[in-house]
Amino acid sequence: MEDFEKKVSITDPIDSEPETNTNPTTASSQVLHLLRRFLAVQQRRAEAYAKLKRGFAEYMVSGGEVAYQQLCSEITAEFNDCSKQVIEMESLFVAPDYCRVDLAQMLRAVQVQEKQKLHLTATIQLLKKAGRPSERLVSHENCTFKKPMKHECMHLHEITEAEGTEEAEADADYDNSLNEAIRGVQDAVTTINEHLEEVSQ
Asked: What are phi and psi of 150, to 5 degrees?
């Protein structure tokens, strides 16, 4: 994972401040402080996604359902806290002390993209967890056992053209859904990064 702080940072004060009754230097530093807080929240989100990605990879190898569910609960709490903080910052930017509706709208746009990204990330994980229809494991519960280590598998039969076509269509639907979710996450990340570049300028 790239170092988030190197990727996005605020180094210069914001030049285009609206004139208000408060001290411009103070107003500018307050805006700068809020934007730095916002970037810190985005850093937390990036770390949470990295943790979720690692946890999902471990789950796919080990199958540890309890550990994965616990991780999902922790990540959900982290994302909820991040969202609450950004919503609070958004409301501060529209308050009379700041009068920065432009920044509030930008934070709102990031929130919308983050929500979409999280939803699609969950979709990707659910699809990968289920696997392609043609590659899913079958249960042998309904098979008949004639000898101790030999059974007649009910899953083995001659595949008809219709069944083969149905399986291929199910795999194609799965692939399309997975690819669509991946593209959606990529689009959300691109949009979020564009907004973060706006913040850092």
From this structure: -135, 135
Query: Whole-angstrom distance between the N-terminal and C-terminal Cα of the chain?
Result: 23
β-sheet bridge partners, residue 152: 144
Owner of token pair 């004639």: 146
Residue-wise pLDDT tens digits, 138-165: 555 555 555 555 555 555 445 566 666 7
Longest Cα–Cα distance in the chain = 90
Contact status, residue 127 vs residue 177, Cβ threshold 8 Å? yes
C-alpha pair distances (Å), 59 with each of 47, 49, 64, 122, 194: 18, 15, 5, 14, 32
**Residues whose CB falls within 8 Å of the CB of residue 62, separated by 6 or more in sequence, listed in order:** none
Q: For the residues of 61-94, what is the DSSP string, one character each?
A: HH--HHHHHHHHHHHHHHHHHHHHHHHHHHHHHH
Give the relative orientation of helices 24-62 and 65-94 as an angle to the nearest 10 degrees: 170
Tokens, residue 150: 């030999």
Single-letter code of the amino acid located at 55? G
- Tell me the per-residue pLDDT of 50-80, one tens digit each, with 9 for 90 and over: 999 999 999 999 989 999 999 999 999 999 9
Do the Cβ atoms of 10 and 29 come closer than 8 Å?
no
Cα distance between residue 43 and residue 53, in whole Å: 15
